From TrEMBL:
The lineage of its organism: Eukaryota, Viridiplantae, Chlorophyta, core chlorophytes, Chlorophyceae. This is tRNA (guanine(46)-N(7))-methyltransferase. Keywords: Methyltransferase, S-adenosyl-L-methionine, Transferase, tRNA processing. InterPro entries: SAM-dependent_MTases_sf, tRNA_(Gua-N-7)_MeTrfase_Trmb. Signal peptide: none annotated. It catalyses: guanosine(46) in tRNA + S-adenosyl-L-methionine = N(7)-methylguanosine(46) in tRNA + S-adenosyl-L-homocysteine. The keyword Transferase applies. One of its GO terms (cellular component) is tRNA methyltransferase complex. GO terms for molecular function: tRNA (guanine(46)-N7)-methyltransferase activity. It comes from the Eukaryota. The keyword Cytoplasm does not apply.
Length: 150
């Protein structure tokens, strides 16, 4: 199944669960499209999640990583005070890179959420994203950070 079909399925699930108009899945390159996509969102954006982004290990491919400085700056502009940024990955070097880009370009804008503890899992239901389920079943760590805009 391709990305476009997955997005369609996710939007159907959101509608069936009563989240139509509150949750929207789109297929896009968020690195360059985030601000323009969310500029027409009908209401305040309360949460931005970056979950298990492609690690792009080779230095020459780092420019393809999802959370580039411009995207971080867009997130700062889009989130209202109290809005949240949730970062999650199973690759430690990616976790460090996510943390570093936020610290370098939005240190002033975010603080750790009060719920953020070393053992916290920020899920309200036992369902997990497929990647998270696979990683935790293997006993591997998942690195998470929940930030709140000041």
């Amino acid at each position: 199944m391709g990305a476009v079909q997955l997005v369609g399925r996710a939007n159907e699930w959101a509608e069936r669960l009563g989240f139509k108009g509150k949750v929207v899945y789109v297929h896009a390159n968020a690195t360059v499209s985030l601000a323009s996509m969310l500029a027409t969102y009908p209401g305040p954006v309360q949460l931005v999640c970056v979950q298990f982004p492609d690690p792009h290990f080779k230095r020459k491919h780092w420019k393809r990583r999802m959370l580039q400085p411009e995207a971080v700056e867009d997130i700062v502009r889009l989130l209202p005070p109290g809005g949240k940024l949730f970062l999650q990955t199973d690759v430690e070097v990616v976790a460090v890179a996510l943390r570093d880009v936020v610290e370098q370009h939005a240190f002033h804008a975010f603080t750790l959420a009060p719920q953020h503890t070393p053992s916290a899992v920020f899920m309200t239901e036992p369902r997990q994203p497929k990647r998270e389920h696979m990683v935790t079943q293997r006993g591997l760590p998942v690195y998470r950070m929940l930030l709140v805009k000041r």
